[in-house]
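Input chain follows. Return structure tokens only.
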Amino acid sequence: MKCRMKRVASLFLALALCAGMTMNVGAVTVQEAENKADELEGKKEQAEAEAKDLTEKLKGIVADMEETQKKKRRSNRLKMNLFRLRLMRMISMRE
């Protein structure tokens, strides 16, 4: 029984060794690695350019929001002043 197990194990290991020597495990050549690096570098540059563009757009949106807030505050102040003037006019009419 032990002898038979050793033979099966030896056969299995021999087959694994042969398969490992003959199969392509996906090794990459230096040229392929350089091409992939160049491709990734290009994608990185595109992503950085897109990020810069989006940052500029965001800054523009924030500036517009701030301008709108200023206009809203001014409008609220004008409404409040108008309300005060009307209230004062109503009070002075009663007197």
